Amino acid sequence: MRFKYLEEFVGNTPLVKLKRLWQGEYVTVLGKLEGNNPAGSVKDRPALNMIAKAEARGDIKPGDTLIEATSGNTGIALAMAAAMKGYKMTLIMPDNMSEERRASMRAFGAQIISVSQADGGMELARDMATEMQSQGKGIVLDQFANPDNWSAHYETTGPEIWRDTEGTVTHFISSMGTTGTIMGVSRYLKEQNADIQIIGVQPEGESQIPGIRRWPTAYVPKIFEAQRVDRTLDVSQQVAEQTMRALATNEGIFAGVSSGGAMAIALSVAAEQEALKKPAVIVSIVCDRGDRYLSTGVY
């Protein structure tokens, strides 16, 4: 018998059919439950991939200090992967992120540096990470510009969706933060069937939805390629939170706010297709678990 290492359990997450929030005749709505990854989110995939690929190239070695700006899920995933592979981890994050996220990072042994949301939030955190690297304080993996981010989804998430839908997927919907998930999945699915619609989700107006960003032009992730997204739709914080709660109470899917936002858009697209009597299989990424948001009062 060969026992497995923890990293071998990243990916191959469940793809489940909604049965109460959606009951269409022509359209099927599926949620990919990324909270089932070891550290509880879709970010386990790129976190592990970025460290493993950098290590394989000789860019980093166990014992080095890694630095990353994060709003939460990537930080937790990187902290887990760093602990697993023997790295020190420094995470820089806005001070308005939930305490559950901070506690999770500390549990894995990461050092946390908080920056003021009022003074710049994630943009300030990204600048600080770059400055710390220039001062020799560690190595920035840079999820926003690192192709090892999107390649994790090209190599795993996309193929899993194609496999588990038996090639019937017609729409893929994902919230957009670093954009790694949507970039990697788009690449893979479009290679299988160019007609598959890739839909990105952004926050509406001034909505503050953890994990979903509308970046200032200077901070748009370098890995983002607009032509790989067929439609970009906005969701409000209120609708995202309402849908998040509905997923829990009507489907038993306990997820975070960005997952609610993506699923709200998935249900809207499903209604469009149903009205046209067009058969469709819609896959929405359920990014993480709801337990890391409890202290914020959204539940």
UniProtKB/TrEMBL annotation:
Xref: Pfam families: PALP
Cofactor requirements of the protein: pyridoxal 5'-phosphate
Pathway: Amino-acid biosynthesis; L-cysteine biosynthesis; L-cysteine from L-serine: step 2/2
GO biological process: cysteine biosynthetic process from serine
Name the record gives this protein: Cysteine synthase
Keyword check for Mitochondrion: no
Binding site for pyridoxal 5'-phosphate: N73, G177, T178, T179, G180, T181, S258
Similarity field: Belongs to the cysteine synthase/cystathionine beta-synthase family.
Enzyme Commission number(s) from the entry: 2.5.1.47
Keyword annotations: Amino-acid biosynthesis, Cysteine biosynthesis, Pyridoxal phosphate, Transferase
Domain called Tryptophan synthase beta chain-like PALP: residue spans: 8-288
Modified residues (N6-(pyridoxal phosphate)lysine): K43
Keyword Amino-acid biosynthesis: yes
GO molecular function, one term: cysteine synthase activity
